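Take the subject:
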Amino acid sequence: MQPVKVGLLGLGTVGGGTVAVLRRNQEEITRRAGRGIEVHVAAARDLVRARQKVGPDLTLVTDPFAVVRDPAVEIVAELIGGTTLARELVLEAIERGKHVVTANKALLALYGNEIFAAAQRRGVMVAFEAAVCGGIPIIKALREGLTANRIQWIAGIVNGTSNFILSTMRDTGAGFAEVLAQAQQRGYAEADPTFDIEGVDAAHKLTIMAAIGFGIPMQFDRAYTEGIASLTREDIRYAEELGYRIKLLGVTRRTPEGIELRVHPTLIPARRLIANVEGVMNAVLVKGDAVGATLYYGAGAGAEPTASAVVADLVDVTRTLTTDPENRVPHLAFQPDALSAEPILPMSEVETSYYLRLRVEDRPGVLADITRILADLRISIEAMIQKEPAQGEEQVDIIMLTHLTREKHAMAAIARMEALPAVTGRVTRLRLEALS
């Protein structure tokens, strides 16, 4: 039987890794897929660099549309990133009846509904394991392994750059700007790190996982996103004193009122396994009603970890090339006509616990004023630290952890605290998740 021919769009880090893994594990992949899989043609902007990566035997072109329009290509692997050109290429490949494998989380988070609808009409597959958490098979776990479960919540450390920054700040006591510079020097952060440090990259991935976990359309525009740039070493240290670690966490949870979809810095109990995920590693915790909590850990980026997921998708597509489209695993795990219309909760209606840090004048009655505000809004305190003033200072830090409360009540309490004459500056607010 002839090998399945793949058209590769992009020969960067992941594209080069994909070619290397396919070649190195060719025999094993053929045994698993039932047919060989070979890259027939690849598009790259710099043909000289691309040729150095893949050797003399692979056909290279500069026009990605030539790959999509090549009649011999059965599967198009989109690895160029971005959302404009990538969207055009993927939609044209689908229209031409070709299956698609993509590692592009932004493309799916923004245009996944359109892409999956087009694929459904043409009877082709769109596989995207590599779009979320690199080499961790979280998409397959959600789409297939946990099919028997009603997913209750998903919580993940899904951006390696931000996790490296927070881990290093905790380990070294350095400030955010200093550690970000280190991450850029090591190649963990881009020259413009906005998507990573502001939580946008994590929100793309969370949007995809929420869609698969709960059977809802992609709704990236409804995701609440908050980054780590304003975190201080003091808050990381205070969190440690209280038995917590701060991580940029993506959380999506099913509630009676709707589905939470949020990314923000979060205190997690240090005893939780996910709180001990360090450096550039990723981890996702999934709670199902039947299986309970399951944890998926591994490399969230890199040439061969991500290529591992791309090749796994190529194998999956190859296995099902002759399958009736109606009998394939649905793109979002649920049948296309059975997606839920459950709303995404606005952040103001989300319930969680809070870490609050206030800088106050060291005089009688201040704490009573603060606790009175919390009591008026029915917010109860779980733990509190009041620091001694430093020599010669007349201000102290008060750190409080609250029990569960609705976000709008917490924000109202913060506004009233900041209006107190004894409170100086802004109140630092971080959310807390027990993940129990």
